[in-house]
Specification:
The two termini are 41 Å apart. By secondary structure, this protein is α/β, with parallel strands linked by helices. The strands form 10 sheets. A 10-stranded mixed beta sheet has the order 1-4-6-5-7-8-9-12-11-10, with helices on both faces. An 8-stranded parallel beta barrel has the order 26-27-28-29-30-31-32-35, surrounded by 8 helices. Strands 13, 15, 16, 18, 21 and 23 form a 6-stranded antiparallel beta sheet that branches. It is globular. α10 packs parallel to α12 and α12 runs parallel beside α13. It has 17 helices and 44 strands. Helix content is 24%, strand content 32%. The longest helix is centred in the N-terminal third of the chain and has 19 residues. A hairpin with a 5-residue loop joins β2 and β3.
Length: 809
């Protein structure tokens, strides 16, 4: 979770009082006035990170500016702090020193409490907040690195009193008559002149509504920029032209140290020369968190050491010809073998910096191929983060991949589950989205069927069944596997069968052994394609290369197919299921290795893959490539940190991605808090956890956590789980089923559809295309169905064989 704090400040005289673990209330006295500021600090923000202060307009408040500016979204990505101060009486002192001192006290407190980098503090504000920004420029410019006024003018007119060259990025709507736009260009040019910029501006059209006027080459490398936005009045918006991102892209280039900026200018020519060869030196990046070092073996003038898990390097690479490019990373082995994540425009890959964990620690330069990525015309962002810390990055190099394969995937004609792009379809062509759970069958056979009955009662539509192949756990024979999957079908649930013995192995032979386990029971699995999915091996792959993950599945999948099994195959991501970049990089290669093109990929989301900052990118990196995905396991916490289960559920719902919670029952110490229920009976108690102490694997870190885990999962099933068609598809047409005597039921978006049943009854509702909207056996009583998400049109309901029409208007 992010950390949000309200600071109450009373100016000029300072005392400090400690509050809760992540907050402090500080009182600073001045004339009896109290001041407030909303502070936003991203999770894991380390020391020496930037600070942005954003001031609201006259008569406005913190909440409104937060809603329109949304600095938090940018701060999450770039890892900096944001402060929204509240004006006294909802306005600012733009003549005296009262609010200037307020801003300086905020900087002081953020430096004391969060060790922010005082050389990288940036000031922005809207309307009167923009006027305050100019007031600060003309009085204490040396305390800030760069400025971003929005729809506010320079109170001093054409007097430019700044004490040093100041970088300014001003955004203004051309239709603004409240704070008249017409006078702004002259003010911008005046500051450009003050900074000794080239007064012949570079004018570019950055979008169809926005013009950028850029004065550059000023003292200390400063620039003065004006973004003029067409059809924009006196307002701060991000939906047509993204004001906040434009400001951050400008801010991140500056510190308030003139000598440091001059050094960057000196090195710029070397950076540009390297870029002409498609080599992008990391020391040339203006957006990174890490330690710069100088080694004897390096290609440029420096390297960046990613010492902390929160360190990163972002490199912007402009491309004029879109297409596939190979991405290489240059590194130094001074700290031995390392692994990193490398993503291009959000699609991730992994790279080994060295050959093996036995590599010597030696000052030598190396280069590794991450993989081939699709680049688009314009700016492309390459992001590097450490898997193993103390990874020393030297440069990124790209080259056009003229041999990159082109894929043309078919949709399998199997009478069963199949993938169609990012969708999983049942035998009747209906999209199926899993809402289910993992069942530890192989370890709890005596209570497995009671557990399965309980899962059915809570309306899950899928169950992932843990099996053993004999390598580590007792092998489950074909007859017992057939019995449990048939019972799932009887209960209306899809069965996903998986072998758990190969967990964490990097040995391809272990994966092939798991595949052979299923191949050897082909005689009982054939014909179950419409209710069974084969998950070859749980979490096969640990720390070997992503290419090894790819090669393993390219060998294992044909084993299944040669046995005559046409089932949809589930493939777990590498890195114990949490390294989504293996799918991002090689998912299409694995899908191409399947003669059926019928692969459903799976990510397991715990503290690594399931933290707040990674959930969306992990999911998007798969489905945006038109690959099908399920979250095969996730919890609410784990030994590698907090899991944002609420975001997993909401984002999967938004993107139509299936999920299977880990797990129904049976987790041993120290992860027993992952159980959804408290007992293995057919009528279990849902699990709830309060204020638990949770430690990492080696007990060096402990967290506190609480969750109503059982209710969260089962409530989501009841709200979202739609059954797959596990029996025969309807063959009768609408015209054959509907007669003139068929009753009509009219509903609208505010209606509730109620079934009054006198006995257990099979209910099926389909839309006009035959897609199943609802299919379940309902018990005696009144059952309410929410229809707010249904599209307007005709639906057909079959209630115990009786057909009637539902018409939504």
């Amino acid at each position: 979770m992010k950390k949000f704090f309200i600071y109450t400040l009373l100016l000029l005289f300072s005392t400090t009082m400690m509050a809760a673990q992540y907050s402090q209330v500080t009182r600073i006295q001045t004339g009896g006035k109290w001041r407030e500021a909303f502070i936003y600090v991203p999770d894991g923000m380390k020391e020496n990170r930037p600070l942005v202060i954003a001031a609201h307009g006259m008569g406005d408040n913190i909440d409104n500016l937060k809603a329109s500016a949304q600095w938090e979204l940018v701060a999450d990505t770039a890892n900096f702090a944001v402060v929204y101060p509240q004006g006294d009486g909802s306005q600012w002192d733009i003549n005296g020193m009262t609010d200037i001192n307020f801003m300086l006290d905020i900087i002081k407190k953020m430096s004391e409490d969060y060790k922010i980098d005082e050389s990288r503090v940036y000031m922005t504000g809207f309307s009167m907040g923009g006027m305050l920004t100019y007031h600060i420029i003309n009085n204490v410019a040396d305390k800030f690195a760069a400025f971003g006024p929005i729809s506010g003018y320079n109170l001093w007119g054409e007097k430019f009193n700044c004490s040093r060259p100041v970088p300014i990025c001003h955004v203004h709507g051309q239709e603004d008559s409240f704070v008249d736009y017409n006078g702004v260009p002259a003010i911008i040019k005046g500051f450009a002149n003050k900074d000794n910029c080239n007064l012949t501006p570079e004018v570019t059209q950055v979008s169809n509504i926005c013009t950028k006027t850029r004065y550059k080459d000023g003292d200390c490398g400063t620039e003065v920029v004006l973004y003029s936005v067409k059809n924009r009045w006196h307002e701060l918006k991000n939906n047509d032209f993204h004001t906040t991102k434009a400001l951050w892209d400008f801010f991140r280039n500056y510190t308030n140290k003139c000598d440091e900026k001059k050094k960057q200018d000196i090195d710029k020519s070397a950076c540009e020369e390297a870029a002409k060869k498609n080599i992008y030196e990391v020391e040339c990046s203006s957006d990174y968190s890490g330690t710069t070092e100088s080694l004897s073996k390096m290609s440029g003038t420096g390297v960046i050491n990613l010492k902390e898990t929160t360190d990163y390097v972002n490199i912007n690479i402009p491309i004029t010809e879109k297409g596939p490019y190979k991405v290489y990373v240059g590194y130094n082995s001074v700290y031995g073998f390392k692994q990193i994540n490398c993503s291009v425009n959000g699609v991730s890959g992994t790279a080994n910096l060295g050959v093996s964990s036995d590599d010597d620690k030696i000052d030598k330069l190396g280069e590794t191929l991450v993989g081939t990525f699709n680049f688009s015309v314009g700016e492309n962002v390459v992001n590097l983060t450490p898997i193993w810390t103390w990874a020393v990055i030297d440069y990124v190099r790209i080259e056009k991949d003229n041999d990159a394969p082109s894929y043309n995937f078919k949709v399998s004609d199997v009478d069963g589950f199949k993938v169609d792009g990012a969708k999983l379809l049942d035998r009747c062509g209906n999209e199926f989205v899993m809402r289910g759970v993992n069942l530890a069958y192989t370890w709890f056979k005596s209570s497995a069927y009671n557990q399965l009955e309980a899962i059915k009662k809570y309306d899950a539509n899928a169950v992932r069944i843990v099996l053993g192949d004999g390598a580590k756990f007792t092998a489950d024979d074909a007859a017992s596997v057939k019995k449990i999957v048939d019972k799932c079908k009887d209960y209306g649930m899809v069965a996903i069968v998986e072998v758990h013995d190969a967990t964490g192995s990097d040995n391809i032979d272990d994966l092939v052994k798991a595949a052979n386990y299923f191949a050897n029971m082909a005689s009982v699995l054939k014909g179950t394609e419409h209710y069974v999915i084969i998950n070859i091996a749980n979490e096969w792959h640990n720390s070997s290369s992503a290419a090894n993950w790819r090669d393993g599945y390219k060998k294992a999948i044909p084993v299944i197919r040669k046995a005559g099994l046409r089932h949809c195959i589930m493939v777990d991501a590498g890195g114990y299921g949490q390294n989504a970049s293996t799918i991002h990089t090689y998912g299409k290669d694995v899908l191409a290795a399947d003669t059926e093109n019928n692969i459903l990929f799976s990510i397991h989301m715990y503290g690594s893959a399931g933290n707040t900052n990674k959930i969306a990118s992990n999911i998007d990196g798969v489905i945006n490539q038109d690959l099908a995905l399920c979250i095969g396991e996730f919890g609410w916490f784990h030994s590698d940190g907090d899991v944002d289960e609420d975001k997993i559920l909401s984002y999967c719902k938004e993107k139509n991605v299936g999920w299977l919670a880990w797990s129904w029952y049976g987790n041993g110490s120290p992860v027993e808090y992952l159980d959804v229920v408290k007992d293995p009976s057919a009528n279990p108690v849902l699990a709830s956890y309060s204020n638990l102490s949770i430690s990492n694997w080696n007990n060096t870190q402990t967290w506190k956590g609480s969750s109503n885990w059982g209710k969260i999962i089962t409530d989501a099933w009841k709200a979202e789980a739609k059954k797959a068609t596990l029996n025969e598809c309807p063959t009768t047409s609408y015209n054959e089923k509907i007669s003139e005597e068929s009753p009509n039921v009219y509903i609208d978006k505010n209606s509730e559809l109620n079934f009054f049943l006198t006995d257990d009854t099979d209910v099926t509702i389909t839309d006009i295309c035959g897609r199943v909207i609802l299919q379940k056996k309902l018990g005696k009583g009144i059952h309410k169905t929410n229809v707010s998400q249904w599209h307007n049109g005709l639906y057909l309901a079959s209630v115990d064989g009786n057909v009637f029409k539902i018409i939504k208007k």
